Amino acid sequence: MNTETFQSLLNRQPFQPLEVRMSNGDSHQIRHPEMAFFLRSSVFLGSPESDNFQFLSLLHVAEVKAISIAPDGANGEDTST
Read out DSSP for the chain? Predict the structure, then answer.
């Protein structure tokens, strides 16, 4: 994944929240486009709910997909088994 492709996903209107899955299996949500800041080979993700942040290497981004966020802030994906 390169910076330009990632940035184009964040600039879509209307914005749709994204889930970023890393090569090690970790996943991170981007719920607001202004909470992602791109460097040359990494992305800095901030959390609007806390002071937490992550630096993610773009080299290790395995998948980026749009997700639904329920109105209460819970992830809208089906988790039934």
Answer: --HHHHHHHHT-SS---EEEEETTS-EEEE-SGGGEEE-SSEEEEE-TTSS-EEEEEGGGEEEEEE--B-TTSSB-S----
Structural domains of the chain ordered from first start? 3-66 (2.30.30.100)
pLDDT tens track for 31-72: 999 999 999 999 999 988 888 999 999 999 999 999 987 765
- Beta sheet of 18-22, edge-to-edge order: 27-30, 18-22, 61-66
What CA–CA distance (Å, rounded) separates 31 from 52? 14
The least confident of 15-19, 25-29, 75-79 is: 75-79
Judge whether 56 and 43 are in contact, CB under 8 Å.
yes
